[in-house]
Structure formats: structure tokens, C-alpha cells
Design goal:
single chain; nine-stranded mixed β-sheet; 11 helices; 11 strands
Length: about 350
């Protein structure tokens, strides 16, 4: 049996934002109990293998006491585990910073554009960038995740310039909108592949300029993935731990799922933290692959792939968008426009 390598704890369903494209299903605020959190951690600790804990929600900083408890349990256990918290950044304060330092909790922040664009898409932009600035003062590294929509694909280069001003921002990645939850009701927000291709090309040019002048490298997840794929170091491989059956996401009520994006979907449940259906978990995303229009794409033999949950919920939409990102990056690398 494969060990759990990636554990997602939805510590709360509560959130202080109301993003129109949020993939989680709206439900009453609920905080995970210590019993459920501990049971989930024990599942990962049981194998003795190295693993990662992603603290999410909702807005996890609304359940900071539980976040601290999770950090304390893991550090006291001596486990070879990393911890990260995915946050909108609006509630960052001295207590959040202390928890990050005390328990070595990494920060992932959701930012969808420069302040004006972020305000349109998520709201609370001033609070988000204030939180980012506080983390910068505390020298706490941050990785940024950006959800692609029609509203921000034309502003990706501006986002990169904005992030480059914060030396604690070590990198960012682009997520395709998941057609689930509120996003299912706002399908018009999805960009088309031409918009994404153009936005990616502009971003590549900006990133190359940033690389030359920034003291601390700003890593871009998709650029790194395509660069590695073109190197010929390996052929196609699973996109993530969920494809290997090594990922588990837990709702506050204890229900278990293969991936965070499955949380709240009864059809994707794999039992609970007290009784996991391991066979169902291991096989749920087995052999799921991005099936784009490969043609003469230089990545056809070593494509980085796509998130299996996105492929499940987007029914053929996200493949075109991610293909547009990969193709734009591959062309720039092969033409020597980007190092």
C-alpha cells in the first residue's frame, strides 16, 4: 500500500471572502474538531514516510487555534513533514506570523492580479496586500496561486511585476478555474485558449526581465514544469500525488476525498478518516491524464499534464487552457526567448 504523501486538512468551511468562482460548495461555517484532525494526521504518520500537510478551507486563519495545534502535534512527533497554509492573506497579523515561525508553516497566498484586478475578482485587495507586506517584513516566504479568468489573463504580466516587488514571494503558479461550486454558476468567467496563450506570452517576456534584475529568483511553476519536460529527463508521469493514490483531503466533518477539489462532492468520497476506503482512494484517479490536441506539440511525449480533479469537473475545458499555457512556454524556451 502506498503511503500518504499529501494530506489536505480543511480546518474550516468558514471564509471571509466570497469569490465568484470558488470551487467549494457553500455550507454553514464549521470548524474541524481536534479528534478529526488528529485522526487524519495519524493516517499520514502511520507509514513513517515523508509527507506534506496542506492546511486549507474556507479561510484557515479563521481557525488559527487548530492550525497551531496541528503544527504542535507534527513538530512534537518529529515526523519528516512539511506544513503549508493556503490563505487569502486578509487576516495576517502578529499571531499568524508567530504560528508560521514557531511551527515552520509555509504560506501559500491566493492573489489574482495587481490590486485593482484582485479587488474585482476576490475583494479585500488592500487587506490581502497588507498581509503580504507584513509577511515580507517578517521574512516569511510566500508562494502565490492565481486562478485564471477572463478578468485577469490580460494582466498576468502586471501581476508578476507586482509580486516581484516583494522579495519574500518565491514563486507562483496558475490554476485553471474549476467548474464546481460557485464557479459552476459563473461559467462566463472562464477564459478561452487564445486569451490564455496571449497572456502567457506577455507574462514570459515580463518574467525574463524580472529574472535579470531581481535579487531573489521568482519561480513560476508552469515554466519549471515545461523546462523539465523539454529536457527529456523523463516521459509522461503522474501530475500529482492524487494520481498515485497518495493524497487525502479531509472535510471538517471527517469525510475523506482523493483531492481538495473533491471536498463536498459525495460522488468522490472515499469514506472517513476513521474508515478510509483505501482501494477506492488508490484507484480513483489512476491513469488519469491530460488528453489535449497534441499534434506536433513538442511536449507530446513528456507533457506535465493537468490536475485530475480539474479534468473531472471541467469536462474537456481545462485541457485546452493548460495546453495553451504549455505551448506558449515551450515555444519561448525553444526559441531561446526565455532561459
Amino acid at each position: 500500500m502506498n503511503p500518504l504523501r499529501y494530506l489536505v486538512l480543511w480546518v474550516t468551511t468558514a471564509c471571509n471572502a466570497h469569490c465568484a468562482y470558488c470551487y467549494r460548495n457553500d455550507e454553514p461555517p464549521r470548524v474541524m474538531s481536534e479528534e478529526i484532525a488528529r485522526a487524519a494526521l495519524d493516517l499520514a504518520l502511520g507509514s513513517g514516510a515523508r509527507f506534506h500537510v496542506q492546511i486549507a478551507g474556507g479561510e484557515p486563519s479563521l481557525a488559527l487555534d487548530l492550525v497551531r495545534q496541528i503544527g504542535a502535534w507534527l513538530r512534537e512527533s518529529g515526523a519528516a513533514a512539511t506544513i503549508a497554509m493556503q490563505t487569502n492573506g486578509t487576516l495576517v497579523d502578529a499571531e499568524v506570523i508567530d504560528a508560521c515561525r514557531r511551527y515552520a508553516i509555509e504560506i501559500g497566498m491566493s492573489i489574482d492580479g495587481p490590486p485593482k484586478v484582485h479587488e474585482r475578482l476576490r475583494g479585500k485587495a488592500s487587506a490581502t496586500f497588507r498581509g503580504l507586506a507584513l509577511l515580507a517584513e517578517a521574512k516569511i516566504p510566500v508562494r502565490v496561486t492565481t486562478v485564471l479568468t477572463k478578468e485577469n489573463t490580460g494582466h498576468l504580466s502586471q501581476l508578476a511585476l507586482t509580486l516581484a516587488a516583494f522579495e519574500n514571494v518565491t514563486g507562483f503558479g496558475m490554476d485553471v478555474l474549476v467548474n464546481k461550486g460557485r464557479a459552476l454558476l459563473n461559467g462566463s468567467l472562464s477564459p478561452d485558449e487564445d486569451q490564455v496563450f496571449a497572456g502567457t506570452k506577455a507574462l514570459l517576456e515580463t518574467m525574463e526581465g524580472i529574472r535579470r534584475i531581481r535579487n531573489v529568483p521568482l519561480r513560476w511553476r508552469e515554466l519549471d514544469a515545461v523546462r523539465e519536460a523539454l529536457s527529456g529527463a523523463h516521459g509522461p508521469r503522474p501530475f500529482c500525488h492524487a494520481c498515485r493514490g497518495e493524497s487525502l483531503a479531509v472535510h471538517p466533518d471527517g469525510t475523506a476525498y482523493p483531492c481538495a477539489q473533491n471536498v463536498g462532492d459525495p460522488a468522490a468520497a472515499v469514506g472517513s478518516v476513521f474508515s478510509v476506503d483505501w482501494n477506492r482512494l488508490r484507484g480513483f484517479y489512476k491513469n488519469v491524464r491530460l488528453r489535449g490536441l497534441c499534434g506536433d506539440c513538442p511536449l507530446s511525449a513528456s507533457c506535465p499534464g493537468d490536475c485530475p480533479s480539474r479534468l473531472r469537473y471541467n469536462a474537456g475545458r481545462s485541457d485546452k487552457i493548460l495546453c495553451a499555457i504549455y505551448r506558449a512556454i515551450a515555444a519561448a524556451l525553444m526559441e531561446g526567448k526565455v532561459r
